[in-house]
Amino acid sequence: MDAIAYLNIILRLAIWFLLTADFSLSNIIIGVAIALLLPRGATSPSALKDWLRVLWEIIIAIPQAYMEAIEIMLRPHNHEDIVQERVKPCRTPGLVFLDIFLITFTPKTIVTKYHENGWYEVHRVKRKRRNTVRQGDRETR
Fold first, then answer.
1. Cβ neighbour number for residue 92 with a 10 Å cutoff
2. pLDDT for the residue 68
3. What is the mean pLDDT of each run of 10 residues along the chain (141 residues)?
4. Which residues are listed as membrane-spanning (predicted)?
5. Phi-psi region of 89 (alpha: psi -120 to 50; beta: other; left: phi over 0)
6. What is the pLDDT at residue 141?
7. Taking the mean position of all CA atoms in its chain, how far away is CA 136?
8. Whole-angstrom Cα distance, residue 39 to residue 9?
9. What angle do CA 65, 66, 71 make, to 5 degrees?
10. Going by C-beta distance under 8 Å and a sequence separation of 6 or more, which residues neighbour residue 79?
């Protein structure tokens, strides 16, 4: 088995444990069996590099998520929009899942839809800046 196959099995097991929240011996055996029995797709040689890049981005996203959560608590974010983001080319289903997880992991963004033609719909909250200037006792915009 190559490295990508191991990463796919680990990803499948992680999803299984997140769904079941049960680390009993019988559940571990069932999870391993399911991870091994699910069909595998063909992988390209550059897929390992993509996997490592996404795993690094997830490590970077953890402190970013904490910073965004604190920022949302301290300064309200009252503007939202939905944007389209392009899926990176030649993504395996596992990498698409990790991309969606990465986008949704941070508090300011969530993937609302994945389009099979290569786009994510991403809902974002933003802090809208006002163009407010105080002049005396009245506000102008």
1. 18
2. 92
3. 76 87 91 84 67 86 92 88 88 84 90 90 85 51 46
4. 15-38
5. beta
6. 46
7. 47
8. 11
9. 95
10. 125, 126, 127, 128
